[in-house]
């Protein structure tokens, strides 16, 4: 089965930086998209960044200029470089991948989430 696992969350001071990683594994034929979402307490999960197999990217307005998404196709891994972090960025961050498996089954896979806490 295809899986994704996030890592890199933690506690950081306002203005600091963190780098999140999302590693996909399993019988993967192609990863069409990889994206990062976040969910703060009492709020809905929101898309903050997405990258396609062709390296095109989109960002939520709230993180433009501060966050950068990238991917390493050889490692089936996506990254989220987060700079100039603010308390409003505090949330559980989830990785999502739109995957075509070796069996040509289309899958949407979610990770377990990693907590990012930004202190004032």
How would you describe this structure to a colleague?
0% of the residues lie in helices and 61% in strands. The chain has no helices and 11 strands. Strands 2, 4, 5, 6, 9, 10 and 11 form a 7-stranded mixed sheet that branches. A 4-stranded antiparallel sheet has the order 1-3-8-7, with no helix packed on it. A hairpin with a 4-residue loop joins strand 5 and strand 6.
List keywords for this structure.
mainly beta; 7-stranded mixed sheet; 4-stranded antiparallel sheet; 61% strand
Mean pLDDT, all residues: 96
Task: Spell out the helices and strands N to C.
Answer: EEEEEEEEEEE
C-alpha-based Rg, rounded: 14 Å
Distance between the termini: 41 Å
- Treating each run of at least 4 consecutive H or I residues as one helix, how many helices? 0
Low-confidence stretches: none
Form type: elongated
In short:
The protein has 120 residues and is an all-beta fold.
Q: Topology, pairings included?
A:
Blueprint: E1 3-7, E2 10-13, E3 18-25, E4 28-39, E5 46-52, E6 57-59, E7 67-72, E8 77-82, E9 91-101, E10 106-110, E11 114-119
Parallel strand pairs: 2-11
Antiparallel strand pairs: 1-3, 3-8, 4-5, 4-9, 5-6, 7-8, 9-10, 9-11
